[in-house]
User: Which sequence fits this backbone?
């Protein structure tokens, strides 16, 4: 295994108990029947009733199990041992019939052989992957002929910006990260918040920036036929401090006339 991915596995093992906790992902609401998927995903992917679905990078599986609640025969895969343990416990408690596998997705062919009607990934997934060419080949490997790939994730453009407070107490946008890919990745080895709650994460972590062309060309190179690419001027989290949450839950930047994309979705088939 790439040692950077091994470092990330340890990082996500540390994050998981925080995300399951009271300030995390609202596990109690999920147990009570909440569907964790976003309206965009449900509308764009369409009905999954009776379809086999493979969720790559599923964390502790609430989205995977939400697809099962919508009728899919779902399988979730994640790098983190802790995440898969929690996913299996939740699934057993709720009786949703989802299968969960612990695997680095690049090594998934060693533990999973079948093909699926749908391969799905979403919301903060691609930044943890160093090699999108191999990722797209994995997607294609697991799709049945005529099957559908769907993803919803951060837009590469939105990831390059940071906010700096100005003299008037407002914020100015500045570029913080490069747009084009850096195969070495960016190592964060300092203490940081785990994007939910206030607990501190101490394990180092690697992230990778991917450009739009890299994402699209990786899928094309794996013989996937792209149906559409959609870009959205809002985010699924507060990516910048001056963003405000809309009534529908998305985070929006009022400045610049909504001309900065923060999310994209792609639907493709094979």
Assistant:
């Amino acid at each position: 295994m790439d040692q950077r991915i091994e470092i990330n596995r340890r990082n996500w093992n540390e994050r998981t108990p925080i995300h399951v906790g009271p300030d995390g992902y609202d596990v109690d609401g999920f147990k009570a029947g909440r569907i964790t998927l976003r309206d965009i995903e449900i509308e764009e992917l369409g009905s999954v009733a009776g379809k086999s679905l493979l969720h790559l990078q599923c964390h502790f599986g609430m989205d995977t199990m939400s697809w099962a609640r919508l009728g899919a025969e779902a399988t979730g895969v994640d790098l983190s041992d802790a995440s898969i343990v929690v996913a299996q416990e939740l699934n057993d408690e709720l009786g949703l019939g989802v299968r969960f596998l612990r695997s680095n997705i690049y090594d998934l062919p060693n533990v999973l052989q079948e093909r699926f009607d749908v391969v799905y990934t979403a919301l903060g997934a691609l930044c943890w992957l160093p090699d999108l060419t191999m990722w797209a080949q994995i997607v294609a490997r697991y799709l049945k002929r005529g099957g559908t790939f769907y993803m919803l994730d951060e837009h590469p453009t939105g990831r390059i910006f940071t906010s700096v407070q100005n003299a008037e107490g407002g914020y100015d946008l500045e570029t913080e990260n490069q747009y084009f890919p850096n195969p070495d990745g960016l190592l964060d080895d300092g203490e940081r918040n785990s994007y939910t709650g206030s607990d501190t994460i101490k394990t180092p972590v690697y992230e990778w920036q991917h450009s739009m062309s890299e994402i699209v060309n990786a899928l094309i190179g794996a013989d996937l036929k792209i149906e559409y690419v959609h870009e959205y001027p809002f985010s699924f989290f507060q990516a910048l401090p001056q963003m405000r949450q809309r009534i529908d839950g998305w985070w929006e930047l009022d400045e610049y006339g909504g001309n900065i994309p923060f999310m994209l979705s792609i639907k493709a088939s094979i």
Summary: The CA atoms of residues 70 and 129 lie 28 Å apart. DSSP finds seven helices and 16 strands in the chain. The radius of gyration is 18 Å. The mean pLDDT is 94.
